Amino acid sequence: MDNKQKNAILLLHCPDTQGILAAVTDFINVNKGNIVYLDQYVDYVNNVFFMRVEWDLNQFLIPSDKIEEYFQTLFAAKYQMEFSLYFSDIRPKMALFVSKMSHCLFDILARYTAGEMNVDIPFIISNHPDLKWVGDKFGIPFHVIPLNKDNRAELEKEEMKLLKEANIDFIVLARYMQIISPEMIQTFPNNIINIHHSFLPAFVGAKPYHAAYERGVKIIGATSHYVTSELDAGPIIEQDVVRVTHKDTVNSFVAKGRDLEKIVLSRAIEKHIERKVLVYKNKTIIFS
Amino acid sequence: MDNKQKNAILLLHCPDTQGILAAVTDFINVNKGNIVYLDQYVDYVNNVFFMRVEWDLNQFLIPSDKIEEYFQTLFAAKYQMEFSLYFSDIRPKMALFVSKMSHCLFDILARYTAGEMNVDIPFIISNHPDLKWVGDKFGIPFHVIPLNKDNRAELEKEEMKLLKEANIDFIVLARYMQIISPEMIQTFPNNIINIHHSFLPAFVGAKPYHAAYERGVKIIGATSHYVTSELDAGPIIEQDVVRVTHKDTVNSFVAKGRDLEKIVLSRAIEKHIERKVLVYKNKTIIFS
Amino acid sequence: MDNKQKNAILLLHCPDTQGILAAVTDFINVNKGNIVYLDQYVDYVNNVFFMRVEWDLNQFLIPSDKIEEYFQTLFAAKYQMEFSLYFSDIRPKMALFVSKMSHCLFDILARYTAGEMNVDIPFIISNHPDLKWVGDKFGIPFHVIPLNKDNRAELEKEEMKLLKEANIDFIVLARYMQIISPEMIQTFPNNIINIHHSFLPAFVGAKPYHAAYERGVKIIGATSHYVTSELDAGPIIEQDVVRVTHKDTVNSFVAKGRDLEKIVLSRAIEKHIERKVLVYKNKTIIFS
Amino acid sequence: MDNKQKNAILLLHCPDTQGILAAVTDFINVNKGNIVYLDQYVDYVNNVFFMRVEWDLNQFLIPSDKIEEYFQTLFAAKYQMEFSLYFSDIRPKMALFVSKMSHCLFDILARYTAGEMNVDIPFIISNHPDLKWVGDKFGIPFHVIPLNKDNRAELEKEEMKLLKEANIDFIVLARYMQIISPEMIQTFPNNIINIHHSFLPAFVGAKPYHAAYERGVKIIGATSHYVTSELDAGPIIEQDVVRVTHKDTVNSFVAKGRDLEKIVLSRAIEKHIERKVLVYKNKTIIFS
Is D114 in CB contact (< 8 Å) with chain B? Predict the structure, then answer.
């Protein structure tokens, strides 16, 4: 047995009633789990209780493969909970989708190779060959699948096959400029992370920097969100902004925007990997 | 004659050609004007030259009341310029329009009474009596004109009469919750400053904080802009933002937003008073 | 009996051991308190558990005036807790200390008169008469106590008498430019809030804007902190910053700084009033 | 002859007197230079005039290799100017110094390989072999020179030889954790760019994140500056900040800081490459 700490991470939500938090923490304590993180939040508008708790499994009395069943039986049924259970020693598998722009890809791979992202990246998919050299540099398989709006139905099958074979947990669209089909979205609900190059909901759709320039805004932004069937309307994970002036051009919007996009996307990925994002009614609870 | 420095401020734009800046600065220098501020900007997309120059009139050879005529004759005609000339010793007259919320009004009056705003405020107009006590505190006439969408045509005449009698130069809508008629907008082109409580162009129109809350944004904003005939679509003067989280409610959006709104509006007013805003094609050049 | 909700607010910290959170929440639940806010945090460096919990007392079985005693006996002794108990229907009494600058004072009074601050302000103290008119405008007693470094010992006694008579809970130094004596600090531990016009710990002491200008920084800041015996070194409650450029002067630093100072100070006051600040080892835990 | 536009870039400062700007722009216009950028700034405290002007050389009457001489004779001598002249088609040569941390290095190389930085990078120098693989990935020579405080005098000679042979124009310390000798600083005055992982002047020297954590700040920063003989006290080029809370640890300060550091350093490098930085009395004028 290794010495590395193995934690269980539990994310849950349910109708808010008295005693849930005490019940859950008591369950963990009684069974000798040492809580290392606990955060909870009550949405008083919708009357929903949200919680993230993480505990050390070292002396936990319930075997890891039984925790889900026990928790379902003892609590989830009783409190009408929806919950997810994760283990810190299981690295999620992330697929990267890119097109022609390299900044987000480089930012992710730099963190990945520096050991900052607790994730596996089995492969990169692109609809263009332009960035294959980046995959090659970092030794990550790079599949060119020249998908476009005319062949989407067919080529997405190919993508889905790759995703399935590699047991991909979630997808990151690192400036991937193609629509994702409803089928793929349904296969990866709240598991496809996009970066949109505007401060959503301003400037939905194509060419947001041009639109922002036309409008004469004084601040531009970037938004990372989960992909849903409605374009650029999924749950927002992270946003950030930077000032611009009348001296900026569309080109300098694009240049400033690159730094925003890569940082915002990487922050969102990290929150997702750390299991600190909970989606409820098209909004996110981001545990800190 | 007083010792206080009197400056001329010239704002202009024209098609960009060689030598304009040299010609204008030469004109000022030759006539013994001491330039104390000069900034210029060329919009290479539209090929337009913009300039703000301010000079000390102390030894200037051309009498103040002749500068406009001379400049028109010598330069404006030649270079197809549009220009505005101001004098630093003439305080602009600002009318405040408010409804029920006090935060922007207080922020403006606090700066005004502390001598931070080089402006006169002859009166406040409101469609509600709620804030009359604030006007009274600060000794500023407060006109309650209960305008609404049904009586707008009639009551705006009353407002226009007040504005005209006091020689008002520009109007500030300090969370005034009424539409301004096209007639009033035409009478005060690029001289009606509004504060909209969102990061425009996101959440145009009523209840932007509710809309932002519904959308689940992670950042909210405020936007100060000149009023044009299209709702919330006029030239943006200033914007700023603040982070929110899932823990925020519509009420806390409103509370955080108040601080944004008042600061953004006051910054816009100050830029306007300092003659550092130039409007071109529904966008602003903000000289620093 | 009135219909207004009355809440108890409990702030505590203690050595971290298993089961504290469950014990405390269970105590509240069992006695029919409805928890409306709960946040906890564990400092794993110092191994300390921090918690803020707020519950509706409407059906709580323990009388309000007995809660402190019960909690001390049942939990605080057992877990070596330090705790504070507050009730939401008791408005804290805040004394304002000012000198000559009005911006922070106006910002606080604007919020106060608009009903945004759940606090009483029995009086304002100043070492100069300059801002007496502001107190008069808002109908708040304004005591001019011309304290300086030579007469501090004597005149602070006068101040202490006023503070005691009015049962002042905490003091806000709204750009009050005098040193506070160790005696007064000890009388109001973690209850004197200062605003320092720099991004601490940069530019401690006098004339921080001049120092920042000399150093050529690209960002200036403001810091609100509790006053301790060491100058500008107390626990930081809130900080914020704004960009400056080479075009800024000391005067424009001061002007930009005013907006920072007032917002940062008011945010800190609000956190203090809401009992969301917990001080531990010269640092603050700020509950959100 | 190629079609690519070749521009001259002139940076200058001199005592402020009337007519400089007109004289310089006139000189360019008269000789058929098309000005594509002009910005000027007057420091009224020190009474110094600063200017950056860029013009298209396509039809300029003075040969490129004579401009410096002519300008010196005609203007610089007369106005006691200090000036620098650059040509847009000559890419500066930049040496990268690194130690063990990869985030800044990756960020620079990602921009470089994407063609976003108009610079050549002949080699990377490190005092550790740890990042050699990164240089190898990007095909950039990586010299391991195991310099430390005991062998600095000797090994810096080796570095200086490399820098000289490659005609290096400026050096970027991309989290290089060694002191630079006065000799090297004098050889590259205002041409060694460092990134310091704090909001200077707070937390000068080693371990600033630890110091920031100890102080309990609510915002951390990063600062890029030119290296001078006084540690962390050179002219500041760029700074930026990010919020932290009591929940952050030294490790999360470090993680958040990495994103700040790389963006701030890359922004500073870009300003330097674009010849938009002018140093005067240990401060920078940053043209936009």
Answer: no
